[in-house]
């Protein structure tokens, strides 16, 4: 797995990776029988993770192809799909952590004028911060998800419930990914001259900065690095 330590300020860095489609999660051959069996938390969370994964794959496909959402089915289905897709896109920055869950080794690309040990230290600080942040919001959103279950009595789609359900799954994956990155992934530092050029681009005006970022992204073969850099960079 390739992870990039992107300089976005004079002493500020952000971790970045391109999204990698994950294999389809295992789907039980048959759902459990009986009303109470279907309320088993393990079954419910597994079902939610599968729907979450399906929506992320669809959102990523739409983002790559830059297509508009196709309205299909009933108004309930359209509303549900729109909300799920919006949630998937709104937490896209967590994909690095989600990908870390499935890897045992990673290559940390960092500016070549930065010692490898320093780069590893910055990476660990960021993962530790992400772990604390997502663990906090996992607890908060889990409580709000339980509270939103009361809205099941209201006719129509439980939009609020969908929102908090997907936030819970996203934060859960992020906590696991950050923990795996800190304790289970073997990191290998790799100096990168193009990333050093991004640091120099911080002093340029917006147009020149974008051109430099696009040049670096092309050389590193990263489709969305320029957009990420423009969004996060601080002069």
According to DSSP, the number of beta strands is: 4
Q: Could you estimate the helical fraction of the residues in percent?
A: 55-70%
Order of strands in the sheet with the most strands? Answer: 2-1-3-4
Main beta sheet: strand number and arrangement?
A: 4 strands, mixed
Strand content: 5-15%
Number of helices: 9
* Total domain units: 1
Q: Please tell me how large the radius of gyration is.
A: 20 Å
Order of helices and strands: EEHHHHEHHEHHH
Summed over residues and divided by their number, the pLDDT gives a mean of: 78
Any low-confidence stretches, pLDDT <50, length ≥5? 35-39, 66-71
End-to-end C-alpha gap = 29 Å
SS class: alpha/beta
Shape: globular
Give a written overview of the molecule.
The protein has nine helices and four strands, in the order ββααααβααβααα. It has one domain (about 1-230). A four-stranded mixed beta sheet has the order 2-1-3-4. It is of the alpha/beta class. Strand 1 and strand 2 form a beta hairpin. Residues about 35-40 and about 65-70 have low confidence and may be disordered. The relative contact order is 0.17. About 60% of the residues lie in helices and about 10% in strands. The protein is globular.
């Amino acid at each position: 797995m390739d992870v990039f330590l992107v300089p976005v300020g004079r002493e500020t860095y952000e971790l970045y990776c391109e999204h990698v489609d994950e294999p389809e999660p295992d789907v039980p051959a048959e759902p459990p029988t009986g009303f109470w069996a279907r309320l088993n938390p393990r079954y419910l969370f597994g079902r939610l993770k599968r729907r979450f994964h399906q929506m992320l794959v669809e959102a990523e496909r739409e983002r790559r192809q830059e297509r508009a959402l196709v309205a299909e089915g009933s108004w309930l289905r359209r509303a549900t799909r729109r909300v799920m897709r919006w949630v998937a896109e709104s937490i896209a920055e967590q994909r690095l952590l989600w990908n870390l869950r499935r890897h045992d080794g990673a290559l940390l690309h960092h500016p070549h004028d930065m010692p490898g040990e320093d780069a590893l230290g910055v990476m660990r600080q960021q993962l530790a911060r992400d772990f604390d942040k997502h663990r906090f919001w996992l607890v908060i959103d889990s409580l709000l998800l339980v509270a939103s279950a009361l809205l099941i009595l209201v006719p129509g789609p439980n939009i609020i419930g969908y929102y908090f359900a997907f936030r819970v799954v996203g934060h859960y994956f992020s906590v696991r990914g950050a923990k795996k990155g800190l304790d289970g992934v073997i990191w290998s530092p790799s100096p990168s001259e193009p990333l050093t050029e991004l640091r120099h681009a911080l002093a340029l005006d917006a147009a020149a900065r974008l051109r430099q970022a696009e040049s670096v992204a092309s050389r590193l073969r990263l489709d969305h690095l320029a957009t990420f850099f423009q969004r996060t960079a601080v002069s």
